[in-house]
Write the structure tokens for this entry.
Amino acid sequence: MSRVLAVYSEKGGVGKSALSAGLVAAARKRKLPVIAGDLDPRGTFTAELGIPEDEAPAFTMNDLLALDPQGETGLAADAFAEAGKAWSGVQVIAAERALANRETDNVAVGLEFRLRLGLKGAVGPGAVGILDLPPRAGGKLVTSALVAATDVLIPATLDEDGRIGAKEALSTIKLVKDLGMNPDLRVVGIIPSIVPGGRSTLKDAIGEYLADTYGSLYRHDLAIPRHSVRQQTRFACVPITDAPGREAQALTDAYDRILTASGVEA
């Protein structure tokens, strides 16, 4: 069974795009077919995968969500664009600034279900889809991704932004499930993100709060360490799996563990 993983928090700066890119890199290293969908109009995920804003493909996520499928499935394949050379084999559904217009699109009926219909049949057996969501409360773009996903991952820095972003993301996810839009959506967990080494009163306090509040949903075992090599690979638009050194390996191992926890088989 293919998995579609949504990476979501309602706060920016908590490592959503970093986690999304890391998961793509880890899945690619496993030689799995990967589809990367960017639902953030800022296009950070798209750019890291080697598609600059001024080279956006002719058919993007914006076009896919603006198109009424009239029940037809698999239309996402028309939006697939090859990632940059360093990410060979990865198919990207790119974001562009105009994607923000979909939030106020009052004409498109059933927009929130279009991505799910589009991916059906386009994400084949054994493939994995990675969706990077914008940091906002609900909205049509967020809902589209949560309706299309099989699983959702919530990265949380161990500070107040991470705590608030996780809390509010869980509220939105619950609403999508309760409304019957995707009742089977599984929360893999709240994943400590960009975690600094050593002890810190704030880091420890936030970690304890998340563990006490959310129990087994808080996945300390999947923590993503903070290493400068992550910013280096982002700037160079190359996968973390291609970088040398112990820090890159530590990040690669973390992303691989998260893939496994999300039900993605090697």
